[in-house]
Amino acid sequence: xxxxxxxxxxxxxxxxxxxxxxxxxxxxxxxxxxxxxxxxxxxxxxxxxxxxxxxxxxxxxxxxxxxxxxxxxxxxxxxxxxxxxxxxxxxxxxxxxxxxxxxxxxxxxxxxxxxxxxxxxxxxxxxxxxxxxxxxxxxxxxxxxxxxxxxxxxxxxxxxxxxxxxxxxxxxxxxxxxxxxxxxxxxxxxxxxxxxxxxxxxxxxxxxxxxxxxxxxxxxxxxxxxxxxxxxxxxxxxxxxxxxxxxxxxxxxxxxxxxxxxxxxxxxxxxxxxxxxxxxxxxxxxxxxxxxxxxxxxxxxxxxxxxxxxxxxxxxxxxxxxxxxxxxxxxxxxxxxxxxxxxxxxxxxxxxxxxxxxxxxxxxxxxxxxxxxxxxxxxxxxxxxxxxxxxxxxxxxxxxxxxxxxxxxxxxxxxxxxxxxxxxxxxxxxxxxxxxxxxxxxxxxxx
Length: 447
Ligand SMILES: NC(=O)c1ccc[n+]([C@@H]2O[C@H](COP(=O)([O-])OP(=O)(O)OC[C@H]3O[C@@H](n4cnc5c(N)ncnc54)[C@H](O)[C@@H]3O)[C@@H](O)[C@H]2O)c1
Ligand SMILES: O=P(O)(O)OC[C@H]1O[C@H](O[C@H]2[C@H](O)[C@@H](O)[C@@H](O)O[C@@H]2CO)[C@H](O)[C@@H](O)[C@@H]1O
Ligand SMILES: [Mn+2]
Fold this sequence. Notes:
Layout: E1 10-15, H1 22-31, E2 38-44, H2 48-65, E3 70-74, H3 77-81, E4 86-89, H4 95-108, H5 118-142, E5 147-150, H6 155-165, E6 171-173, H7 177-188, E7 197-204, E8 207-215, H8 222-232, H9 246-259, E9 266-267, H10 272-275, H11 277-282, H12 290-296, H13 298-312, H14 324-337, E10 342-349, E11 362-370, E12 373-376, H15 384-406, H16 409-418, H17 425-438
Parallel strand pairs: 1-2, 1-4, 2-3, 4-5, 5-6
Antiparallel strand pairs: 7-8, 8-9, 10-11, 11-12
Helix pairs in contact: 1-2, 1-14, 2-13, 4-5, 4-12, 4-17, 5-6, 5-15, 6-15, 8-9, 12-13, 15-16, 16-17
This protein binds nicotinamide-adenine-dinucleotide, the ligand O=P(O)(O)OC[C@H]1O[C@H](O[C@H]2[C@H](O)[C@@H](O)[C@@H](O)O[C@@H]2CO)[C@H](O)[C@@H](O)[C@@H]1O and manganese (II) ion (MN).
């Protein structure tokens, strides 16, 4: 509960209001007004038509559940970013059309095609950098005291770029993959959820490892988790997974094979793309990738439910519900707003958190969150295996940002070629040359 003497109510802007995650965030906000009271909720998007479909349903939801909250959707940056306390950013520059090419172009060359990893993730990163920097600049122009919680991917490259290009900005880059996995870990050991776990974790975004996991009483849960994960990965099954899509089932199960590479830790699911790229390519369809699945599933469900709410004029029977994505971002706002020093993962400059990794690397580690933002916790030294992996991949992410800043073809070719997912500099160049054409409306002209 909010401290009785604190009568503040907050103004929140969702940048990327047309996102498929927006309804989940709205539900979490409306369900959590006792912990995080709102006076205003705004949406901002550069596609007003897409945003309107979600905004019209949200207007009904708010009228029925919290009519005291002022709600507005706009494509005008000044209107959107003025009088805001928190910006929740979740844009997809180039939208699903470009994600589809990020996935399909590499696969044509026998290389992993994926949203945030490999050549697809680097291509997405070069589109996202200007999009997120623009949001930061709007926020600082119109609401200089606001905090930005950024989900926009690829979070690793976006975080590297925002820390480098806007080093003093109040932006926190986050990811919901580790918390989704920790909810699974809690289910595996019979606890309620991730909040019942105490953990140590380090790495890069979509590229990390758990080294310690206990319950609140300090009992070591790693042996039980390792035993389970070695056989089942993070797949829980039963009611827990009744709505989980097939490709996510495959990803959660593949964690068993990733774990075997280092049985002293538990891996992030995304490491499968780096350690088993041939297996991933073999199990991919270059003509029907994850984007096609998302458009046929999540996007269809979300926009279909929004249309149903608007057609019926009520949301009283909606099946929209909060999810990992939304609970995390609202927990973060609450920690900052009320200086709770809650312990949460964030993607931040290393500065010694991992003592034997480049201090300027952008890492993902546990932090204490209060009104001054994240305070990084020391995770000690990376082991040799992790140090090698992290150093290489962080160099890829730095080269991607260098390429955008310097408009450098060579730096981008180096980023593609250095990436563990790409087997050969010649193949890297073939993929890069195709991606330059595909991204002509988004990337700077490379020289
Ligand atoms: N950090 C994480 O762990 C995590 C988890 C899930 C999703 N995401 C990211 O959240 C974002 C949204 O995902 P989604 O599947 O809902 O995407 P989506 O395509 O459904 O929605 C993205 C919205 O952003 C808008 N947009 C694009 N460029 C913009 C710009 N320059 N300015 C303003 N608005 C812009 C689009 O019009 C669209 O409405 C993606 O970047 C996705 O990768 C991150
Ligand atoms: O392929 P998508 O668009 O379904 O998912 C890509 C995203 O996957 C992760 O986010 C998961 C999240 O971990 C899980 O809890 C739940 O909310 O589903 C999300 C998306 O389906 C990853 O962390 C993101 O960075 C990816 O964009
Ligand atoms: Mn993520």
